Amino acid sequence: MTDQKDPARVAAGLKATMQNPNVSMEAKHHAQEKLEQMGAADPESEHGVPVRYAPTAGEEHRVHQLAGYKAALHNPRVSEKGKAHAREVLEASGLQAEKEPEVSHEEHMTHVLAGYKAALNNPRVSQEAKAHAREFLESQGAL
Question: 125-134 long-range contacts, Cβ below 8 Å, gap at least 24?
């Protein structure tokens, strides 16, 4: 946590990240955001020149493009073929595609049943939906 570290050293590390050519555009954006949160935005180098990472238009487009591929991995409307393509693109760009956690059928059913049980006690759920939840829970022997 930065509140337990020397803020000057943290800022120095973030500035170094922004200047490192081996660091991804996403990491440079993150470093800039952290500097701004710390109140160290637009710091000056030893030569008096402001140090701020400014991506080119092409880099900015690529960052947005990769973010779209990341979002596709979690979008239920994207086909498995589309998700596989998104993983390939992310891995080819040096980013690790997040793998969805594997959940057993039993664990999945536990979550489903918990959701239906929660619906029964939620005042914002319609009576029709509560009736459906009750029927499903009864059919599963969970009521």
Answer: none
Q: Which domain holds residue 68?
A: 57-92
Nearest-angstrom CA–CA distance, 65 and 126 = 40
The terminus-to-terminus CA distance of the chain in angstroms comes to 45
Query: 54-107: per-residue pLDDT in tens?
Result: 667 777 787 788 888 888 888 889 999 998 998 888 888 877 655 556 778 888
Domain check: are 47 and 5 in the same one? yes
Q: pTM to 2 decimals?
A: 0.35
User: CA dihedral defined by 102, 106, 107, 110, rounded to 10 degrees?
Assistant: 150
Based on the fold, state whether residues 75 and 50 are members of the same structural domain.
no
